[in-house]
Design a protein that fits this description.
Structural class of chain B: alpha+beta
CATH class of chain B: Alpha Beta
Shape of chain B: globular
Radius of gyration of chain A: 15 Å
Shape of chain A: globular
Helix content of chain B: 40-55%
Strand order of the largest sheet of chain B: 3-2-1-6-5-4
Oligomer: heterodimer
Largest interface: A-B, 25 and 26 residues
Order of helices and strands of chain B: HHEEEHEHEEH
Strand content of chain A: 15-25%
Number of domains of chain B: 1
CATH superfamily of chain B: GAF domain
């Protein structure tokens, strides 16, 4: 119940932001707060449908990856959320990003963001839930959240292009 | 693209929409914008009550509810097929349900519908527009699909709220 109040308030704030970059920052902060994660990256599929990029990730600047790489790429390909509570034992996990940033990923959850035509237009990735692993409740919350922000995100991207 | 300006208007609409705290405030607001943007005379938003397998909608005042079975008419077809439908000659369509026209005295000439999905891809409602000069076309369908998706987050959040309040 409190979470829904929080989301309603967030939604109003999101609508006042004119700039996609600021909107992505706000979405990322809200996602972290909803599932108590330490870091969030929002990957957007580029116009040519060839790459996934982040405008800004916590602590690491811009990341660009191909559509099929890592757990984020797998989320894009399968069009399904992924929970990975043991990334270093997961073949898909890109250890190189941790190496580059010096930040150790302990656990991860990803959810696809669908546009109105049901194409994946982006992926929300959250890292390192405090104390616990990511679970099915986090997944349900984030699935709802991804859909909640998808309309404004689609509109923002349409307007930019 | 006849809808280029409409996407710009949508940002304002979204801002106003998210200030609404209930379906009875939100639905008339959505209906007003949908009519204006797609240039149709009337708009109804049917919410799908899965538990009771029925559809309900509010009148223009946003208070009084009308309940109809979920298998009736073009709206029923939209729920079953889970896709948008255009009917440009309502009275010649075998599934058109003229009961609402008879009650309201308003004559439906043409109509367009689009399902509204929640985040788990269940249909939670149907957006319906009635009577556009010259009929509805593919561009209208595309915009309806976009619009239905755009409002779905708001509708899902409010529905969750109201269910939680009832408990």
């Amino acid at each position: 119940m409190k979470k829904f109040d929080q989301i309603a308030e967030f939604g109003q704030k999101l609508m006042t932001l004119k700039n996609t970059e600021h909107a992505l920052e706000l979405i990322s902060d809200e996602a972290k707060s909803l599932v108590h994660a330490d870091r969030c990256s929002i990957f957007i599929v580029d116009k040519e449908d060839t790459m996934l990029w982040t405008k800004l990730s916590d602590g690491i600047g811009r990341i660009v990856i191909s559509l099929d790489s890592g757990i984020v790429g797998d989320t894009y390909t399968k069009k399904e959320p992924q929970i990975v509570n043991n990334p270093y034992e997961d073949k898909r996990f890109l250890q190189s990003i941790d190496k580059k940033s010096g930040y150790k990923t302990e656990n991860m959850i990803t959810v696809p963001i669908f546009d109105s035509k049901r194409n994946v237009m982006g992926i929300i990735q959250l890292l390192n839930k405090s104390r616990f692993d990511f679970d099915i409740e986090d997944l349900e919350m984030l699935t709802f959240f991804a859909n909640y922000v998808s309309g404004s995100l689609e509109l923002a991207i349409l307007k930019e292009n | 693209m006849k809808y280029t300006d409409s996407y710009i208007k949508l940002a304002n609409f979204g801002r106003e929409l998210l200030e609404k705290k209930s379906l009875s405030e939100g639905l008339p607001h959505i209906a007003r914008y949908a009519k204006e943007l797609i240039d149709a005379r009337r708009c109804s938003i049917y919410m799908y009550d899965r538990e009771n397998d029925e559809l309900w909608t509010t009148l223009a005042d946003g208070i009084e509810k009308i309940v109809i079975p979920s298998n009736k008419g073009i709206v029923g077809n939209t729920i079953r097929e889970e896709k948008p439908l255009i009917v440009n000659d309502a009275y010649s369509h075998p599934n058109f349900h003229s009961g609402i026209d008879e009650e309201s005295g308003y004559v439906t000439v043409n109509l367009i519908t689009a399902p509204i999905f929640n985040s788990t891809r269940d249909v939670i409602g149907v957006l319906q527009l009635i009577n556009k000069n010259g009929g509805f076309d593919d561009e209208d369908v595309k915009f309806m699909v976009f619009f239905a998706h755009y409002v779905s987050g708001f509708l899902e959040l409010i529905s969750k709220y109201q269910r939680a309040e009832k408990k």
